[in-house]
Each structure stands twice: as structure tokens, then as C-alpha cells.
Specification:
The complex is a heterodimer of chains A (272) and B (234).
Chain A (H helix, E strand, L loop, with lengths): L20 E10 L2 E11 L4 E6 L5 H8 L7 E8 L3 E4 L5 H10 L1 E4 L3 H4 L6 H11 L5 H14 L16 H13 L5 E5 L7 H18 L2 E5 L3 H7 L2 E6 L2 E7 H6 L4 H8 L5
Parallel strand pairs in A: 3-8, 3-9, 6-7, 7-8
Antiparallel strand pairs in A: 1-2, 1-4, 4-5, 9-10
Chain B lengths: L6 E12 L5 E13 L4 E5 L6 H8 L7 E8 L2 E4 L5 H10 L1 E4 L11 H11 L4 H14 L16 H13 L5 E5 L7 H17 L2 E5 L3 H7 L2 E4 H4 L4
Parallel strand pairs in B: 3-8, 3-9, 6-7, 7-8
Antiparallel strand pairs in B: 1-2, 1-4, 4-5
The chains are: A alpha/beta (272), B alpha/beta (234).
Bound molecules: adenosine-5'-triphosphate (2 copies) and magnesium ion (2 copies).
Chain lengths: 272, 234
């Protein structure tokens, strides 16, 4: 008999043996055009799943379905909630789903403008998420916001500045702080390092690596950058034409790609 | 020690298919079997291109074997690295199976000391303690102290290789894979690596290595596994 981790929870590469997210045959169509289809996977606690693939392959569509921003045309998503255990997300009420989005989940958009409120200060961007989960004490909210600015390497004395006065990299870090302040268990990230200078990217990646480790976050990470995937993701799914063509351990997929498309993808970059 | 092998390979096969070249097939080995016990060091041998590194990478599940089994004793059970789920493979790598690759893969912006300490930290050892161990290994491998706090990206080939070796020996893994650990090293450092291997064997580590350096191979290995005679290409 071959023992697997499921036989012994103490073995965990990850914290638990119950998947946080169970996705089965998921699909979304824009009218007659397929966004993505037949997507099946489990995501375990503390696991980082990278999604790579060419432009238009369905990565953002999949992420939007997972994070509840697009309805499913096909399939199911089950999520292991803190209070009720495994639930079918389609069966949740709108209010329950909103609560989940605000407390358990975080979404980091490719463009910080989609994830930040540009008209309010950095501190308010962070504080808003805290207030949404019931924080009321102004002084404490401000202290927490300052603390988080520091954690994402933004000078705490910028707390009252508008995000529009921040650089692209700072805005992206602020977006991350805004999401992490409520201690989510699951983060969805769409090209978090896209559009940033290489040196700024490296710093952001460092930060993400540290935060993911420290907070035991599960992450679904969309990226077109295989070096980013190698650095952050435990596991990869390669998408083409709306379907997953190859998946597995990150270094295995990148070093021993099997599908013709994955081989093309890996060989078309210099070294990852 | 434990009588059953720490690493047991049965009927392993691997071939590459290159789609960009019309599905060109490169068979590397098939029907390969090998068992390594605790405290034993097996040296892989054979001409360039015969598949030594491929076998080592398959053992680490960095390459996906096509068929056969790779059973690793992991925390009181057996894991088949060919069939295991990614998170199980990662758990085996974290706790049980170390791998010193031929070249260091540098992590941007991380200092050499932390590159070495990382596997220990990931295993739950306190950061200070992990750094102490890392420092001791770097000192043993004669990495000047002024380099410890720099990222190894700008280090020489030999320095990078020694950082990589230190990273591989920071934990007392029950099983360890070594791909030409001394290729770029001078005599003194080769001797240190030989000592590290001997100490690991004495602790009961099962080792599989590729050693081009004949003196080192003869000193540390108990057995030579010849891939040319072991593989049966069908
Ligand atoms: N709102 C929409 N209406 C109609 N079709 C859409 C819409 N959004 C995306 N699509 C189509 O769905 C497919 C998948 O798009 P998606 O945005 O998921 O790709 P992607 O992998 O994220 O690409 P990129 O790397 O360029 O961001 C494409 O063919 C795209 O044209
Ligand atoms: N990722 C890969 N994709 C395709 N072919 C590969 C890959 N890795 C190795 N090969 C092929 O497998 C064969 C065995 O290579 P391998 O690197 O295992 O040889 P080796 O015995 O380690 O040689 P050396 O002594 O030169 O290091 C070679 O033909 C090589 O081209
Ligand atoms: Mg997209
Ligand atoms: Mg080799």
C-alpha cells in the first residue's frame, strides 16, 4: 500500500487535507464565444496555483468565474467556508457571497485603478476593508493601516495621500495591503506584476513571496510571465483556447513540458 | 538501520518527445530498477548524454517518468514520486528528499545566507537558528563572510556551486541527490564536500550522485550504477 498525505495529515505540504476550493467542469461563454470550459481542479490551503497561457486563452475569464464576478455557464465551485464547511457557491445568497468576498477573499487586479478607490486616501483604502468587517475604532483602524503600509514598504507618513500620487509599484502594493488587511484565506491575482519595471517587479515578488508564506495564503495567480510563475506558484495550469492543456508541479511543467503548446511557450523565453 | 530501501526504483522509463521537430522521440531509459539503502551512496555512471541527470531529475519528480515507480520512504509511509500529487511531491522534497542541482538557480534579491537557510526555515526551524547553520556551512565551504549578505547572482561559478551545496546540506535529509557537486571546485573544497557526504552517510542518508571526479567517486560511493548496461531500450 502506498501512503499518501491523505492518510496522515501531519505530513502536509500544506495545512490541510480538505481543499479550500473544488472546481468541477467550470466554463463561461460570452454568447457563442467560449471564454473557458471544462476546468477542473482542487486548491489546497497554502497552495499557490499559477495560470499561464497566451493572450485570449481564458485566464481572466476563469479568474472572474472563481472570484464570483462572472456567472458560470457550466460546472460548479465548492468553497470550504470557516463556519459552514464546504458550500456550493451557486447556492449562497448575494449577501453571503458579498461577505465572503470582503472577509475571506482578496482580489488583486492587473490595474491598481480597478482595485483601489482613487478618490480617497491610502489610509482610507485600507481602512475601508476593515470597516466592512466591523471595525469601528478610528484610532485602531489608522494604526492598522499604518502598519500595513509599512509591511508593503510604503512610508507610513503617506497615509493621507491619494493613491494617484503614488507610483505604479506603490499603487500595486497598496492594493495588496488593502486586500490582506482583513486576513483573507484566498487571493485572486491577475498579472500582479504586469506593467511594472523589472526592478519594481522583483521587489513586489519578494514581498508577495514573504506574505504568502507568512499568512498561509492560498492564491490563484494569473500571469504571462513564466519567471513569476516559477518563483511563486507551487502548481501550474497551462491554458490555450479556453481549456487547460497541461497541469502539474511548476518546475515539472516548465522543465519537462509535454504538450506542444507548453513546449512552445517554454522555448520561446530565454531562461526561466 | 532500516532494512528496506529508502529509494526504490522499479521499471522506470523516460523518453522525451520534441513536438517542434515533428514529434521527435528521444528514448533515454526504460525498465530501469535501482534500490538505495540508508547510509549508502550510489554513483551513476555512463557517457555524456546517457541519462544520468535525467534519472536524478526523475527521482526528484522534476522530470515526469513515463512509467514505473519511484518509491521513497517518507515519514513512515511510501510515496510513489511518479504518481504522487504535486503537494505530496512538495512535502517529500521539503522533509525527505534533498537535491543539489548542477547549477544554482538564483532567487532575485535574496542574500546567500538566506538562500542557504531557506530549506530549513521552510521546514519550521527558527530563522535565527537556520541562519546560524547556514553560516557554519558557508564558512566550512570557504565562502568569504563579506559575500554572505549579497545575492549570489554575481558570484563566481564555484562560489555559486558551494552556495548550492550548502543549501543541499542544511537539513539532514533521509535521501539526497547530487548532480556533479564538485565540478567547479578546488581540491580543498572537494575534500570538504567529500566530508559532508561521508557525514551524511554516517547519519544514514541514502545518496545518489553523479561524480565526474574519479577520486571523489571512489572515496564516497559504495556502488556504481552503470546506466549504459542498466537501460534496455525497446
Ligand atoms: N466581455 C467579453 N465579451 C466577449 N468576449 C470576451 C469578453 N471578455 C473576454 N472575451 C473573450 O474570451 C476569450 C478569453 O478572454 P480572457 O480575457 O479570459 O483571456 P486572457 O487569457 O485573460 O487574455 P490576456 O492574457 O490577454 O489577458 C477571448 O477570446 C476574449 O476575446
Ligand atoms: N528537458 C529535456 N528535454 C528534452 N530532452 C532532454 C531533456 N533533458 C535531457 N534530455 C535528453 O536526454 C538525454 C540524456 O541527457 P542527460 O542530461 O540526462 O545526460 P547525462 O548523462 O547527464 O549527460 P552529461 O554527463 O553530459 O551531463 C540527452 O539526449 C538529452 O538531450
Ligand atoms: Mg487577462
Ligand atoms: Mg548530466
Amino acid at each position: 500500500m502506498i501512503a499518501t498525505l491523505a492518510d496522515d495529515p501531519a505530513n502536509g505540504a500544506t495545512n490541510g487535507d480538505i481543499p479550500l476550493l473544488q472546481v468541477r467542469d467550470l466554463g463561461h461563454s460570452y454568447g457563442s464565444r467560449i471564454g473557458c470550459r471544462d476546468i477542473t481542479f482542487d486548491l489546497y490551503p497554502s497552495e499557490v496555483l499559477g495560470i499561464v497561457g497566451e493572450s485570449g486563452s481564458g485566464k481572466t475569464t476563469l479568474l472572474s468565474c472563481l472570484s464570483g464576478r462572472l456567472p458560470l455557464s457550466q460546472g460548479t465551485i465548492h468553497y470550504d467556508t470557516r463556519t459552514q464547511g464546504l458550500v456550493d457557491l451557486a447556492a449562497l445568497s448575494e449577501a453571503q457571497r458579498r461577505l465572503l468576498t470582503r472577509t475571506d477573499w482578496g482580489i488583486v487586479h492587473q490595474s491598481p485603478r480597478d482595485g483601489l478607490r482613487m478618490a480617497v486616501s491610502a489610509g482610507a483604502n485600507i481602512g475601508e476593508r476593515l470597516m466592512a468587517v466591523g471595525a469601528r475604532h478610528y484610532g485602531q483602524i489608522r494604526d492598522t493601516a499604518r502598519d500595513w503600509l509599512q509591511r508593503v514598504e510604503i512610508q507610513p507618513d503617506r497615509i493621507d495621500d491619494l493613491p494617484s500620487t503614488f507610483s505604479g509599484g506603490m499603487q500595486q502594493r497598496l492594493q495588496i495591503a488593502r486586500n490582506l488587511v482583513t486576513g483573507p484565506r484566498l487571493m485572486f491575482m491577475d498579472e500582479p506584476t504586469g506593467g511594472l519595471d523589472v526592478s519594481v517587479q522583483a521587489r513586489l515578488l519578494d514581498l508577495l513571496r514573504g506574505l504568502v508564506d507568512d499568512m498561509n495564503l492560498s492564491v490563484v495567480l494569473v500571469t504571462h510571465d513564466l519567471a513569476v510563475a516559477r518563483l511563486l506558484a507551487h502548481r501550474l495550469m497551462v491554458m490555450q483556447g479556453g481549456v487547460v492543456v497541461e497541469s502539474g508541479l511548476t518546475d515539472q511543467v516548465l522543465d519537462d513540458p509535454h504538450h506542444p503548446y507548453t513546449q512552445l511557450l517554454v522555448s520561446s523565453v530565454l531562461q526561466v | 538501520m532500516n532494512p528496506s530501501p529508502v529509494i526504490e526504483v522499479c521499471g522506470l522509463a523516460k523518453e522525451f518527445t520534441i513536438h517542434a521537430q515533428g514529434g521527435l522521440r528521444i528514448p533515454v531509459f526504460s525498465g530501469l530498477s535501482l534500490a538505495v539503502s540508508a547510509g549508502e551512496c550510489v554513483a551513476l555512471h555512463g557517457p555524456s548524454g546517457c541519462g544520468k541527470s535525467t534519472l536524478l531529475r526523475a527521482l526528484y519528480a522534476n522530470y515526469q517518468a513515463d512509467s514505473g515507480r519511484i518509491l521513497i520512504q517518507h515519514r513512515g509511509g511510501l510515496v510513489d514520486m511518479v504518481a504522487a500529487e504535486p503537494r505530496v511531491v512538495l512535502a517529500v522534497r521539503r522533509h525527505t528528499l534533498g537535491y543539489v542541482s548542477q547549477f544554482l538557480r538564483v532567487i532575485p534579491r535574496i542574500a546567500a545566507l538566506d538562500v542557504v537557510a531557506e530549506p530549513a526555515v521552510r521546514n519550521g526551524i527558527a530563522r535565527d537558528q537556520a541562519r546560524e547553520r547556514a553560516a557554519a556551512l558557508l564558512a566550512r565551504l570557504r565562502i568569504p563572510q563579506r559575500l554572505w549578505h549579497l545575492p549570489p547572482a554575481t558570484f563566481s561559478g564555484g562560489e555559486q556551486q558551494r552556495v548550492n551545496i550548502a543549501r543541499g546540506f542544511i537539513l539532514d535529509y533521509p535521501a539526497l541527490l547530487l548532480d556533479e557537486p564538485t565540478a567547479a571546485l578546488d581540491v580543498d573544497n572537494r575534500d570538504t564536500v567529500a566530508q559532508l557526504i561521508e557525514e551524511a552517510k554516517a547519519r544514514g542518508t541514502a545518496l545518489v550522485g553523479i561524480f565526474h571526479d574519479q577520486a571523489l567517486r571512489e572515496r564516497v560511493s559504495d556502488r556504481v550504477f552503470d546506466l549504459e548496461s542498466a537501460r534496455t531500450i525497446v
